[in-house]
Amino acid sequence: MRDEYLSMLDATQELTIIRMPAHIDSTGVKQLADQFHQKIQPHSGVILDLSQTHVVELDAAHILIQGLAIAKQRSAKLSLMGVQSHIAAILTATGVLQHFRKLESAH
Description:
It is built from 3 helices and 7 strands. By secondary structure, the protein is of the alpha/beta class. The protein has one domain: STAS domain (Transcription Regulator spoIIAA). The strands form 2 sheets. A 5-stranded mixed β-sheet has the order 2-4-6-1-7. Helix 1 runs parallel beside helix 2 (62-73). The radius of gyration is 13 Å and the shape is globular. The two termini are 15 Å apart.
């Protein structure tokens, strides 16, 4: 089961999707930070696609908080999609997920 966690996106904002790696660990944090600095533009909407992410190491989960900080500084919106339940559990345990609201399905 995958859930969607979104901050509020405005339909007029430019939208960028960043496909996150299968493993988010401490060795890839700098590369992700560089990607966030490059792709999170002022007043844009950015979706981090975690649908192919199978592992998030606890010591690397903070990179999503860094992405949120960059987005806030640039008045951009950062959202998550494709969050698998075991990844959501890790992001909840690290306090990351509380910064995103869950998008309820429309069934």
